Amino acid sequence: MSAFDLPDLPYAYDALDPYMSAETLEYHHDKHHNAYVVKGNELIEGLPDMGSTLEEVVVNAYKQGKQGLFNNVGQHWNHKLFWNWMKPNGGGARPGNLDAAITDSFGSFDAFREKFIQGGVGQFGSGWVWLITDENNKLDVMATPNGENPLVHGKTAILGCDVWEHSYYIDYRNARPKYLEAFVDNLVNWEFVTELYEKGPVKIAA
Question: What is the per-residue pLDDT for 203?
């Protein structure tokens, strides 16, 4: 596939204040995400065809044990979605289809919120917490270490929160629970989450 590119943020650097600062976004997007793109492009150069889509490259790198490539392309995929999982004045009500699915799967939105936050808090060290769907479009929460993601486990991520320390330390210091609470309550772009939910499971070519 063609070289990976760093996407622009879908909002201004200061658009998520006070829940995520311009300083955090500048470091996280311009430095960390960009580094994954640059390194991913270096590592894939000269390799046999790894796939025609980013998703295929992520899964194939994981399956083939190309850990360095996977770390970088996995994080590129994770972050491309992460920026879109947030919006100014986020949080709030969920569109009907998604809200019904959350209630059906978790019992209530509050029960989902608690499980999601605890999943992120409980992820030791660096990693991510996800709202996923399985092949039957049933919702669940899972956490993964480092740059690992639901794609490589045959699941579809419809929401994810980065719990690497660089995601929140400038704004929250070591208070990861407060960051996760702010993410769910004030940052999530539920319309985008619903769009991914309604698309159904992601299919990756073998």
Answer: 81
